[in-house]
Design goal:
Layout lengths: L6 E8 L3 E4 H5 L6 H8 L3 E4 L6 H15 L9 E5 L10 H9 L6 E4 L5 H14 L6 E7 L12 H4 L5 E8 L7 E9 L7 E2 L13 H6 L5 E2 L1 H23 L8 E4 L4 H11 L10 H4 L6 H11 L8 E8 L3 E8 L1
Parallel strand pairs: 4-5, 4-6, 11-12
Antiparallel strand pairs: 1-7, 2-3, 6-7, 8-13, 9-10, 12-13
Helix pairs in contact: 3-4, 8-9
The protein binds oxa(dethia)-CoA (UT7).
Oxa(dethia)-CoA binds next to helix 2, helix 6 and helix 8.
């Protein structure tokens, strides 16, 4: 039996304890605290230590989300795991989390939509729950960037931006009237795939990676920052508008807006273009950097923990990133 709407019932996030400041990065490459703060807003980020993968970061975030939803792990019957930095080439990190949680047999779906991964994941969970196929879906966004970055001056434009972390949400049947996910708008345009990407290892190459590739740094993420920036500041307002229209609500009705934490300047640009009051915007990139699929659930969960997301609040999530992909969702809390 299907239901009309699904809702976020609980959230959690986890970042590894090690904090890395801009000054520490400036000791490794030609950059500065001033440049990083001015161009991105970032002050520090968290990095894993030792052999820790995204499933390890996702586990404490998931446990907290489950506890806050007032259910147990045995009530979870679907995992949707968004990451661009899976523990292994295969299998996906969703099955690793499923085993760690101790939920044998439940389906685990991995999705690869990078910065929009959490919103894509929510839309999948929403459909499964509304269709009555899942009762409680666990949606995760988690990244370990720090083991895949170029810590020389060659990689400075990308490396200073990213951080590690995980966020999770339980999606199930609404607990109170009017609560729920009102709309999701999802888009992609693969003609921009190489504007923000990681070339190697890739299944089209024989072998998938060579010593020469490693020497050139083809295994590090590469980005045309200005192109990404330009598309982000036009696509984010447009997709937010589309999600608002589809939900039948107005921009002014929103209580809180959680943009993907890509760059503080992008958030401020979107805020300025749409004339959104600053107190409605959630920005925490200063402390976590850009954690890609984890950035929205971390920011949303932290805003909730700070009491900024109250019962009945109208919440918008909006993201743009690699793919290109862009997405937005409107949620009545
Ligand atoms: O979440 C995924 C989506 N990603 C994004 O949304 C990122 C979007 N793009 C951006 O956030 C910005 O483009 C960056 C923060 C990546 C770069 O900022 P920018 O203002 O666009 O700088 P730029 O790439 O145009 O570079 C300006 C200068 C260059 O030097 P020259 O050519 O002017 O001499 C760069 O080499 O800054 C230099 N530069 C740096 N200098 C110090 C680039 N990175 C650094 C660095 N430290 N880390």
């Amino acid at each position: 039996m299907g239901i009309e709407r699904s809702a976020i019932l609980g959230m959690g996030f986890y970042v590894p304890p090690k904090v890395v400041t801009n000054e520490e990065l400036a000791r490794l490459m030609d950059t500065s605290d001033e440049w990083i703060r001015e161009r991105t807003g970032i002050v520090e980020r968290h990095y894993i230590e030792g052999e820790v993968g995204v499933a390890d970061l996702a586990l404490p975030a998931a446990k907290k989300a489950i506890e806050r939803a007032g259910i147990t792990k045995d009530d979870i019957d679907l995992i949707v795991f968004g990451t661009l930095s899976p523990d292994y080439e295969f299998p996906g990190s969703g099955v690793l989390l499923q085993a760690m949680l101790g939920r044998p047999g439940i389906p685990a779906i991995d999705i690869r939509q990078q910065c929009t991964g959490f919103i894509y994941g929510l839309s999948i969970a929403d459909l499964y729950v509304r269709a009555g196929i899942a009762r409680n879906a666990l949606v995760v966004g988690a990244e370990v960037h720090s083991t895949g970055l170029d810590f020389t001056t060659r990689g400075r434009d990308v490396t200073v931006i990213f951080g590690d972390g995980a966020g999770a949400a339980v999606v199930g049947a609404p607990r109170v009237a009017d609560q729920g996910i009102l709309s999701c708008a999802l888009h992609s345009d693969g003609s921009y795939a190489k504007e923000l990407w990681c070339d190697k290892p890739g299944s089209r190459y024989h072998p998938r990676i060579t010593a020469a590739d490693l020497e050139r740094g083809d295994h590090f993420p590469a980005m045309k920052g200005r192109t990404v920036f330009k598309h982000a500041v036009t696509k984010m307002p447009a997709v937010l508008d589309e999600a608002l229209k589809s939900a039948g609500v107005a921009l002014q009705d929103l209580d809180i807006i959680v943009p993907h934490q890509a760059n503080l300047r992008i958030s401020e640009f979107v805020q300025g273009a749409l004339k959104i009051p600053a107190e409605k915007m959630v920005n925490n990139i200063q402390r976590y950097g850009n954690t890609t699929a984890a950035s929205i659930p971390i920011a949303l969960c932290e805003a909730w923990e700070e009491g900024r997301v109250k019962p009945g609040a109208l919440v918008a999530l909006v993201a743009f990133g690699a793919g290109f992909t862009w997405a937005s969702t409107i949620i009545r809390w």
